[in-house]
Write a structure and sequence with these properties.
By secondary structure, the chain is an alpha/beta fold. Helices cover 38% and strands 18% of the residues.
Length: 701
């Protein structure tokens, strides 16, 4: 058991291994070389520090060395035995070679089998003694072990105990990684400690080098837990610190823009519908932020069609009526145009000047808009990334709204907000994010949820089907088109790939256009096409000039087509549930019953279980929770476009308590020393900036 003094004390004796050593190319480490280095690179191991931080995914209990007579069926076992027969090789078929031998100790005999490991013939010598580890199997009156790991008996001190298990790639074995890290630790690598003794004692954290040693070579499972907590805390703490440093939040800022209460009835009276209770609640939360002494930093979550845009419009109305300009940034030209078309018709009637600026805006028009923004002749500007260009200036920007936030980087959002002084910020997303992940991604943003759909919206009926339903699905598509409806078909690939047995946009387009749906209008769309071409196709689809649109997930965030009633997703098992839910949200936007058909030939129970979740629930929040649980945070957004870092050890689902603690600690540090200028925070600042160099480059220090 670790005593308190050991737990909090700094155990290293100085910078024995300098930072330059830690950043040394992995190929120069003993036992690596150029060929192995390339394989290690596949595991994202490029230097010595990467190797130190390549943490085990699990641990095996190898604390006990067993005798053969004490074997238990189906249990992983460590044992020492002598090879009593020469290794026999049997070639069963072209790709299968079986090697067998027998080993024994003073209590019994055991059969050992290997598959396609011809080198074993030379490695295992008759009458020699080895150390084995593998799962035992009892049948026909004796024990056998298939494909055990084999060690020299002299390695017992290293092998016996709690053994780390690492993720691998072809050409890299557990033994190789274990020996590589073991050899490294013989030189006692030392990492600089970024936390003070007082800080570690306050948050019950082990010293970093104790943690690193015990995450790789623990003596007890208690030491594993202590080590993991320290490393997980540091990962989450540094990310929280980076988020708080980057975000244009209220920490250390004074609210400069003063808002007085505005009657929103004139705007509401123009709407052809009444707000849902959920929308009303979020509007009240936004108004409270406006009229308070703190700067608004609010995240609004809600399913596709829940009415986030109208809530944003009300916020813009309040800002304009208080004398400020407002900006709404959307991820695509199509979506920006949709927002402009929908909102400008209301604002024009209220005497509010609205304009739009995208990559499609001509140079002449852009110059005119820029001038009008400077002169406050434009109240509301809607646009894409074009809004963050250096030449875009505002006379009095008071509110910034970003739609579909996960399509933007943190720096992009901050750059727009910095075009004004202490700007109020509203972030919107139709990707429902579990509260735990929202806390992580958005630091101290206040969270609003629109969890109610407008009355009259019919839930989309979802079906997960296999290849045997192909003809039925095609007949159903024809029936819907004949009734005047339209269809989306989404594929995971743009082009055919010989290595992947997946449907591609181009392949399916040829098949649909020339074989299955010859009598209908079929078009395709993907991200490699030019924006102008994509916009033209989407507009033709909106105008019902295209019956079937085959696409990649580029249509995940797109215009609203109320006539589209079928969403077919090919190889649906290749997508995250949250992403499938986003795709499903492309249909069901009109008065017609809509359908989502998830096609997959994956027979694994996990895959079937995932797709069944989509059948059972239309709630994006339920789906998101399950997605995070099943896939983990790394793949949560499908194509890693969220700005989320890849945590090496932390898991947002299981480490929520450590996350909360790390967030509290980061808030405390940054509230006392916003730019980490104090002497005690210098090491912390150095590590933070090396880890988040790209994101923090433009932060004022």
């Amino acid at each position: 058991m670790l005593n308190k003094r050991m737990f909090y004390s700094i155990i290293y004796l100085g910078d024995k291994m300098l930072m330059s050593d830690l950043e040394k190319n992995i190929q120069y480490l003993k036992g690596v070389g150029p060929a192995k280095a390339l394989l290690l690179n596949k595991l994202q191991i490029y230097n010595i520090k990467d190797l130190l931080e390549y943490y085990p995914r699990a641990y095996e209990d190898r604390t006990k060395v067993s005798k053969i007579k004490d074997f238990e069926n189906g249990k992983n076992t460590l044992f020492i035995a002598r090879v009593v027969r020469d290794v026999k090789i049997q070639r069963i078929r072209k790709n299968l070679t079986i090697l067998t031998t027998f080993v024994a100790d003073d209590t019994g005999e055991c059969k050992i089998t290997f598959f396609n490991q011809k080198y074993i013939k030379d490695k295992l010598k008759e009458n020699s003694v080895y150390l084995f580890y593998g799962k035992t199997n009892y049948e026909y009156g004796r024990f056998s072990v298939e494909s055990p790991q084999v060690y020299n008996v002299s390695d017992l001190d290293k092998i016996q105990g709690i053994y780390p298990i690492y993720n691998l790639t072809q050409g890299i074995t557990q033994n190789y990684l274990f020996k590589l890290i073991s050899n490294l630790y013989e030189n006692k690598p030392l990492l600089p400690e970024i936390f003070s003794d007082e800080f570690r004692e306050k948050y019950k954290l082990a010293e970093i080098n104790y943690a690193m040693q015990n995450v790789h070579f623990p003596k007890t499972f208690n030491s594993v837990n202590i080590a993991r907590k320290r490393i997980i805390f540091e990962e989450l703490f540094l990310f929280q610190l980076a988020i708080m440093s980057i975000k244009n939040n209220s920490l250390g800022q004074i609210k400069e823009n003063i808002f007085t209460e505005v009657d929103i009835a004139p705007f509401l009276n123009l709407l052809p519908f009444k707000l849902t209770n959920a929308q009303k609640n979020v509007v009240e939360e936004i108004k409270k932020d406006f009229y308070s002494k703190k700067i608004m930093n609010r995240l609004v979550q809600g399913d596709v069609g829940s009415g986030k845009t109208i809530v944003a419009a009300i916020a813009m109305y309040i800002a304009v009526k208080n004398g400020y300009q407002a900006a709404l940034m959307a991820p695509t030209t199509i979506l920006a145009n949709q927002h402009f078309d929908e909102l400008s018709k209301y604002f024009e009637k209220l005497g509010i000047t609205t304009s739009i600026i995208t990559s499609s805006t001509t140079k002449k028009n852009k110059e005119l808009i820029v001038q009008k923004l400077k002169n406050k002749e434009i109240d509301i500007i809607i646009g894409t990334h074009s809004l963050i260009e250096d030449n875009i200036e505002f006379a009095n920007l008071g509110l910034v709204i970003t739609d579909e936030q996960h399509r933007f980087g943190v720096m992009q959002r901050m750059k727009l907000a910095n075009k004004g002084k202490a700007v109020e910020t509203l972030v919107m997303t139709a990707t429902p994010i579990p509260r735990t992940l929202a806390i992580m991604l958005y630091g101290d943003l206040d969270l609003s949820i629109i969890d109610e759909m407008p009355p009259g919206r019919k839930p989309v009926k979802t079906y997960a089907v296999g290849e045997s339903y192909e003809n039925r699905v095609n007949q159903f598509i024809k029936k819907q088109i004949d009734e005047g409806r339209q269809v989306y078909v989404v594929c995971p690939l743009v082009e055919e790939n010989e290595e992947l047995d997946l449907k591609s946009v181009e392949m399916l387009y040829e098949k649909y256009k020339n074989e299955i749906f010859k009598e209908y209008s079929v078009e395709y769309l993907h991200g490699k096409m030019k924006n102008k071409e994509k916009d033209e196709i989407m507009n033709r689809f909106k105008d019902n000039k295209i019956n079937i649109l085959i696409s990649t997930t580029v249509i995940e965030v797109g215009i609203s087509v109320s006539n589209a009633t079928i969403m077919v997703v090919e190889n649906a098992d290749r997508f995250g549930l949250a992403q499938l839910h986003q795709l499903r949200g492309r249909v069901g936007r009109g008065n017609f019953q809509s359908y989502c058909i998830l096609k997959s030939n994956n027979k694994s129970q996990k895959s079937i279980q995932r797709l069944k979740i989509m059948e059972k629930s239309n709630s994006g929040f339920d789906v998101a929770e399950k997605d995070l649980e099943l896939r983990g945070p790394g793949d949560f957004f499908g194509i890693r476009q969220s700005g989320m870092p890849e945590f090496k050890l932390a898991n947002l689902l299981t480490d929520i308590n450590v996350l909360k603690q790390a967030q509290m600690a980061a808030k405390e540090v940054i509230s006392k020393d916003r730019y980490l200028k104090s002497e005690e925070n210098q090491k912390l600042k150095k590590v933070l900036y090396s880890k988040f160099k790209e994101q923090l480059t433009n932060i004022t220090t």
